């Protein structure tokens, strides 16, 4: 019997697009099928064909509902996959909401893009999938409880462990049959941080052959935040933001992060730590996800505090576009929590467009911001940004509170990996930007004996009894290894447009601006500058 082969089709060098294809015993099992986020180059992968034959996939094992792990499942089904998708009951509840919302967002954004394309005489585009596509694949979900062994095609056995990252999140233990006995593989999914408001500490088995481990915060330590410490820090941000006519904007993932922040804000107001003010949840997805959290509240830590927050008189959820637009008319200090968490889509972009240029605005980041996203660009101190084609000068104050992160930090990851010992063959580091993976791969050999591997996008490894072996001469990667997890040419282009605008504004007169543009034309097309200038001069002479 051939050794298992593991393909890394996402989250290899970046934190999005999680997708791993395991070939074993004649079966082809997909672990996660996530959407790529971040730079434009990475997001374009969502539109490209899958790097495998969808009709040959036998089963999908889903770690959790976040879109960077589940977001391309409707595309997979649309492309011909009709088999089972295994997930925990809570993950299925969240996916039922989130995947339809993802389809709706794509339809909406494509409509706007096609209006611009028609005005520019460009080709129109189709959404990756629609809300109807997402609804049609929901019957493929099959619920799996934590700790329950299941068997699927090819004699592959698997069971789910609570990863402590998100309601329903899981690490997946897999056993594959082989001539030399079973091979045990553990996919970490996203490992939860300690002191999560709703989640317990992550659990997983020890004594595996291969570990596929996330490394999102592999290069950084967060401050130790007990619940009181976190709320104290949040209180400080609210207090410093509270100005007449001001706003605290919180870009937040709609699922769990929004509910955590809301619970803490209302608790601070109930305790008199901060003045009570309007709290607006500007996200239809957050509103629907909140219903799923209410359903599972008895299983959540601090579930009662969460339910109290939902009933607070100063909390409002916006549903319609009209209700969302009306937030721009609110007077007096207020707090708006809006998706998306990395400011890449959704209503937060409208709120930022309305507020970034005002000094009375504070933007609070409460989650990881991937390279190339608007959130990371703002977090790193950009003075000018472009949103929906408009240039905006940033006067708002930026703040970050990473106590809400759903990911284990460096020391927590190290401890989690150590708890999986003995790891007999190899550890693959995934779901992390290059700096995070490099830092973690430098530390781990001092703590564990297993070989540490950092795969590139679309790499394939044979998982043999002797260890992991990179398989050469396979289908080329869809993008170069240096691209994932980094800003790309589109980020550089946007920066250049803003710099050019600043340069032209700084020039004293029209003649100076003409000189700047002439130099730019010369750089773009040296051979054509004289012709352009000749035509311009000829036109001037003819008109005089």
Automatic annotation (TrEMBL):
SMART domains: Beta-Casp, Lactamase_B
Signal sequence region: none
InterPro entries: Beta_Casp, MBL, Metallo-B-lactamas, RibonucZ/Hydroxyglut_hydro, RMMBL
Domain Metallo-beta-lactamase: 16-241
Pfam families: Beta-Casp, Lactamase_B, RMMBL
Residue intervals of the Beta-Casp domain: 258-378
An annotated Gene Ontology molecular function: hydrolase activity
Record's keyword terms, sorted: Hydrolase
Superkingdom, taxonomy of origin: Bacteria
Gene3D superfamilies: 3.40.50.10890, Ribonuclease Z/Hydroxyacylglutathione hydrolase-like (3.60.15.10)
Name of this protein: MBL fold metallo-hydrolase
Organism of provenance: Rhizobium leguminosarum bv. viciae
């Amino acid at each position: 019997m051939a050794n298992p082969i593991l393909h890394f089709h996402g989250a290899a060098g970046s934190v999005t697009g999680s997708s791993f294809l395991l070939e074993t015993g004649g079966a082809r099992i997909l672990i996660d099928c996530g959407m790529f986020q971040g730079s434009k180059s990475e997001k374009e992968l969502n539109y490209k064909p899958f790097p495998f034959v969808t009709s040959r996939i036998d089963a999908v094992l889903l770690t959790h509902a976040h879109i960077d792990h589940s977001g391309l499942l409707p595309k997979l089904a649309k492309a011909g996959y009709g088999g089972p998708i295994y997930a925990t009951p809570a993950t299925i509840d969240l996916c039922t909401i989130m995947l339809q919302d993802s389809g709706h967002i794509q339809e909406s954004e494509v409509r706007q893009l096609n209006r611009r394309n028609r005005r520019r005489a460009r080709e129109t585009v189709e959404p990756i999938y629609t809300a109807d596509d997402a609804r049609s694949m929901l019957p493929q979900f099959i619920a799996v409880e934590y700790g329950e062994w299941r068997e699927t095609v090819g004699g592959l056995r698997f069971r789910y462990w609570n990863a402590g990252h998100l309601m329903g999140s899981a690490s997946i233990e897999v056993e594959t049959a082989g001539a030399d006995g079973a091979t045990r593989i553990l996919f970490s999914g996203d490992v939860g941080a300690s002191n999560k408001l709703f989640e317990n500490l992550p659990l997983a088995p020890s004594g595996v052959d291969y570990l596929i481990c996330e490394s999102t915060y592999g290069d950084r330590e967060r401050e130790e935040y007990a619940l009181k410490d976190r709320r104290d820090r949040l209180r400080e941000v609210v207090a410093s933001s509270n100005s007449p006519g001001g706003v605290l904007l919180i870009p937040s993932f709609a699922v769990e992060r929004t509910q955590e922040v809301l619970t803490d804000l209302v608790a601070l107001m109930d305790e008199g730590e901060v003045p009570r003010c309007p709290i607006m949840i500007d996200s239809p997805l957050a509103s629907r996800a909140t219903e799923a959290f209410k359903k599972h509240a008895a299983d959540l830590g601090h579930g009662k505090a969460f339910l109290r927050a939902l009933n607070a008189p100063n909390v409002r959820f916006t549903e319609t576009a009209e209700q969302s637009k009306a937030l721009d008319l609110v007077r007096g200090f207020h707090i708006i929590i809006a998706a998306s968490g990395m400011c890449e889509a959704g209503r937060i972009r409208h709120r930022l467009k309305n507020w970034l240029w005002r000094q009375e605005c504070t933007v609070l980041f409460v989650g990881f911001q991937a390279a190339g996203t608007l959130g990371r660009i703002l977090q790193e101190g950009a003075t000018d940004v472009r949103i929906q084609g408009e240039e905006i000068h940033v006067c708002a104050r930026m703040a970050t509170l990473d106590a809400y992160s759903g990911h284990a930090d460096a020391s927590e990851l190290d401890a989690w990996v150590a708890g999986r010992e003995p790891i007999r063959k190899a550890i693959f580091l995934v779901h992390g930007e290059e700096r995070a993976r490099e830092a973690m791969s430098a530390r781990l050999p001092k703590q564990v004996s297993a070989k540490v591997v950092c795969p590139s996008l679309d790499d394939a490894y044979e998982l043999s009894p002797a260890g992991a072996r990179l398989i050469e001469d396979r289908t080329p990667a869809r993008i170069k290894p240096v691209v994932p997890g980094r800003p790309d040419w589109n980020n550089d282009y946007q920066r250049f447009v803003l710099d050019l605008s600043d340069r032209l504004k700084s020039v004293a007169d029209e003649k100076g601006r003409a000189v700047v543009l002439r130099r730019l034309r010369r750089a773009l097309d040296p051979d054509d500058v004289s012709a352009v200038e000749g035509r311009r001069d000829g036109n001037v002479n003819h008109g005089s």
